[in-house]
């Protein structure tokens, strides 16, 4: 198997090393693992692509590239440049430092990389490691992802249905904030919403007198709606959420039919 990996924390991120180990396990002795990752951290860029200026790509080693762009840019560069003669069988994005459950999904560059892969017609999975009191002080906070990642991906690949749809499936996987031995299992879960948790800003005045704002997130330990991704993560389960890039609110299409003329 030939696997492409990217992330949004940057090519030097510890989570990328975890993902490389997972991908090497999956690819097997006769497989290949390619890395095309952002040269600098790109957290929070979602599905951004840089089509108004060129993106520089540097080769860092065999099958390893850094690109000065977003995760979605990296996927495009890999497919249409670095790997154009040897396309991947699978594209993995992560392992992200911090969860991409619930509302975080909408901002995530990790998700953006997997989404672009799906739009390009490739099987794609995003992986993220929830942080919390149970794992953030471990020698390896990615312990749950490192120990369970390959198995979860194999299970997803074995059960994914054959489709012919306009918007292909991709998957959002979040590992719970616990050590690997404390993981309770896997739960298929919809995207949740942590009540009252939104991004905000913290203003600062620089010594020069100029005003700046830091964007900051909300409390990630707030329990989301029961059975959703963030909820099962905080209960110690790995969440698997199937997704599509179609943003249509299908549930209200019929009720809004009166808009038609």
Automatic annotation (TrEMBL):
Positions annotated to bind a divalent metal cation: 8-9, 43, 96
Domain of life, source organism: Bacteria
Broadest EC class assigned to this enzyme: hydrolase
Keyword Nucleotide-binding tagged: yes
GO MF annotation list: 3'-nucleotidase activity
Essential cofactor(s): a divalent metal cation
Principal location listed in the UniProt entry: cytoplasm
Keyword DNA-binding set for record: no
Compartments, record wording: Cytoplasm
EC number assigned by the record: 3.1.3.5
Keywords carried by this UniProt record: Cytoplasm, Hydrolase, Metal-binding, Nucleotide-binding
Cofactor note: Binds 1 divalent metal cation per subunit.
Domain Survival protein SurE-like phosphatase/nucleotidase: 3-194
Catalytic activity: a ribonucleoside 5'-phosphate + H2O = a ribonucleoside + phosphate
Protein task: Nucleotidase that shows phosphatase activity on nucleoside 5'-monophosphates.
PANTHER family referenced in this protein's UniProt entry, alphabetically: 5'-NUCLEOTIDASE SURE, 5'_3'-NUCLEOTIDASE SURE
Family, per entry: Belongs to the SurE nucleotidase family.
Name this protein carries in UniProt: 5'-nucleotidase SurE
Organism classification: Bacteria, Pseudomonadati, Pseudomonadota, Alphaproteobacteria, Rhodobacterales
């Amino acid at each position: 198997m030939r696997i492409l990996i990217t992330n949004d924390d940057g090519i030097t991120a510890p989570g990328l090393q975890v993902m490389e180990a997972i991908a090497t396990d999956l690819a097997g002795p006769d497989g290949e693992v390619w890395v095309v990752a952002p040269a600098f951290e790109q957290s929070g860029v979602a599905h951004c692509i840089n089509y108004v200026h060129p993106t520089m790509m540097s080769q860092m080693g065999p099958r390893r590239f850094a690109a000065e762009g977003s995760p979605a840019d990296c996927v495009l560069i890999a497919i249409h440049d670095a790997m154009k003669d040897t396309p991947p069988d699978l594209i993995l994005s992560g392992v992200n430092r911090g969860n991409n459950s619930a509302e975080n999904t909408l901002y995530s560059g990790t998700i953006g990389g997997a989404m672009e892969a799906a739009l390009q017609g490739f099987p794609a999975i995003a992986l993220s490691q929830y942080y919390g009191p149970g794992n953030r002080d471990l020698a390896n906070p990615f312990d749950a992802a490192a120990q369970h990642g390959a198995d979860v991906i194999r299970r997803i690949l074995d059960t994914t249905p054959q489709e012919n749809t306009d918007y292909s499936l991709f998957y959002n996987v979040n590992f719970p904030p616990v050590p690997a031995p404390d993981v309770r299992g896997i739960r298929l879960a919809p995207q949740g919403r942590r009540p009252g948790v939104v991004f905000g800003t913290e203003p600062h005045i620089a010594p020069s007198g100029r005003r700046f704002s830091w964007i900051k997130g909300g409390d990630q330990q707030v329990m989301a709606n029961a059975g959703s991704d963030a909820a099962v993560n905080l209960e110690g389960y790995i969440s698997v959420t199937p997704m599509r890039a179609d943003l249509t609110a299908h549930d209200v299409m019929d009720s809004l039919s009166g808009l038609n003329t």
